[in-house]
Design goal:
The protein has about 180 residues and is mainly α. The protein contains 10 helices and no strands. Helix 6 runs antiparallel to helix 7. The radius of gyration is 17 Å and the shape is globular.
């Protein structure tokens, strides 16, 4: 496990401990950050700042604050997979009737970094309403990549494969053999 991975796990484990100890005050303080940028909700500082890894870029710091506030809104345990898999679970609950869900997911995939926290807030609210848990560690890792075009593309492709269920195609040779 690299340092970034262990820091992410440390942060998510901390959030889960707040949930498991039923620290309603801490979760309420974190929820106050929904829809706001870091620094706009001082109540979050005491819970987030001591657990931030050192040397974060501004976008990475936003990711930690975003995940903390989203987690506080929907702290249900048991999430696995990525955001595409979470939304596919909603689609399965709706027996394939997914045109509006697909539109929301497509908008999420095309979202600019600056607008991502707001779109995620809407998506996590939807997941909460359907009782679909979120894999918070995976979400944190995925949105941290959003600020780098190449890694963001990989993340978006992984989400799309999980949502639509297509197998990954690794090379043009794989593509041509898939059509043979």
């Amino acid at each position: 496990m690299d340092q970034s991975e262990s820091q992410k796990e440390f942060f998510i484990t901390y959030l889960e401990a707040l949930r498991d100890s039923d620290d309603r005050g801490a979760l309420a303080a974190l929820r106050r950050g929904l829809g706001k940028r870091p620094g706009e909700t001082p109540e979050m500082f005491r819970y987030v700042v001591p657990r931030l890894p050192t040397g974060l870029r501004p976008w990475e710091e936003i990711c930690y604050y975003t995940v903390a506030s989203l987690f506080a809104m929907h702290p249900q345990a048991g999430g696995s997979g990525n955001m595409g898999a979470h939304l596919a679970a909603i689609r399965a609950q709706n027996e394939g009737k997914s045109s509006s869900l697909e539109q929301r997911f497509t908008v999420l995939l095309s979202t600019h970094t600056d607008d991502l926290p707001n779109h995620l807030r809407q998506i996590v609210s939807l997941l909460k309403s359907y009782g679909v848990p979120v894999n918070w560690g995976q979400l944190l890792a995925d949105i941290r990549s959003w600020d780098f075009p190449e890694s963001a593309t990989r993340t978006k492709n992984a989400w799309a494969r999980a949502f639509w269920g297509y197998a990954a195609v690794n090379s043009p040779a794989d593509l041509s053999s898939a059509h043979s």
